[in-house]
Amino acid sequence: MKHLYKNFLRDRRAYTLNVAFYKRMVKAATGRDAAHFFQPAYANGQKIYDDHIFSTKYKERILQVIQRKPSSEHPVLRARKQIWDGQYDMLVLTLELSDAIKPALKKIIKAWLVDGTPFEDIQALLPQPSGVVYKNTGPLPTVNEDGA
Amino acid sequence: MSKKKHRGRIQAQSDHLEESVSWAQDSPPSLKQGLEMAEELKGKLSKKELKNREKQFKQLERFMKNASEAGGIYSPEFRSFENEETNDGTRVDFELWAGAFGLSVVIIILIIFLA
């Protein structure tokens, strides 16, 4: 198993290429250029280089990728669902990027963003047996309706 | 009633826990407010729940401090600090749904002036 962009947290060029990797993958699935959904920079414009490497929104669904520094010899790809701001379904993928998970990642991105596949069916696309799944929809926000 | 301009929450989560502290206000929460909300959230957890999230709360606080030092952060923004030693989604999340967080005083004055 080969890890991809394994120096992404230390090498800003690798980080940028890594982000481009996800953008290409999303574009291949959706046919549209993929823009970040969550802010990739602070208010002063300083870019944030951390493990929350990529996010996007398509068809009222959000995808967030949290890419860990490679440390496992086995495929690591976990998924959970959260509700964002009481409005949007958000799939949070926590992974170590490797050639071993790339095919599953492609399928999951297309299934989630384009096909509207329910989270329960996304689980079947995760690598087994190390693809640990936990579901957590989070508490309902208490401030959405009236700002109180 | 219209939604407040600046909204979000921090939350402690797992398969067995859902606790959060949220904000909805007319001005962006300051770093001080953010750290106070983190303390409030800690106060809602049992000793064990807190111990399982010690590192994650430190990561949250560091993220808020880094954001504040960089002039703040605008929405939408999301950070999830996970305890990977558990298998039940133990984590602390930062969710900025609308507005901003931790902006510098100068930027807040500009926002008020331009509003």
Report on this model:
In chain A, α1 (12-30) crosses α2 (102-114). Chain A has 148 residues and is of the alpha+beta class. Chain A is globular and about 35 Å long. In chain A, a hairpin with a 2-residue loop joins β1 (54-58) and β2 (61-67). Chain A has a four-stranded mixed β-sheet with strand order 1-2-4-3, covered by helices on one side. Chain A has three helices and four strands, in the order αββββαα. The longest helix of chain A is centred in the first third of the chain and has 19 residues, at 12-30. Chain A has one domain (12-125). Chain B has one domain (6-114). In chain B, 38% of the residues lie in helices and 31% in strands. Chain B is built from four helices and six strands. Chain B has helices at 31-43, 47-51, 54-69, 105-114; strands at residues 6-14, 17-25, 73-74, 77-82, 91-98, 100-101. In chain B, the strands form two sheets. Chain B has a four-stranded antiparallel β-sheet with strand order 2-1-5-4, with helices on one face. A two-stranded antiparallel sheet of chain B has the order 3-6. Chain B is elongated and about 45 Å long. The chains are: A alpha+beta (148), B alpha+beta (115). At the A-B interface, β3 and β4 of A face β1, β2, β3, β4 and β5 of B.
Secondary structure category of chain B: alpha+beta
**Beta-strand percentage of chain B?**
25-35%
The spatial strand order of the largest sheet of chain A comes to 1-2-4-3
Flag low-confidence runs of chain A: 130-148
Count all strands of chain B and give the number.
6
Strand content bin of chain A: 15-25%
* Number of structural domains of chain B: 1
Major sheet description of chain B: 4 strands, antiparallel
Mean pLDDT of chain B: 92
Widest sheet: strand ordering of chain B: 2-1-5-4
Topology pattern of chain B, helix = H, strand = E: EEHHHEEEEH
**Low-confidence residue ranges of chain B:** none
- Give me the Rg of chain A, rounded: 16 Å
Q: Quick one: overall form of chain B?
A: elongated
Number of helices of chain B: 4
Helix content of chain B: 25-40%
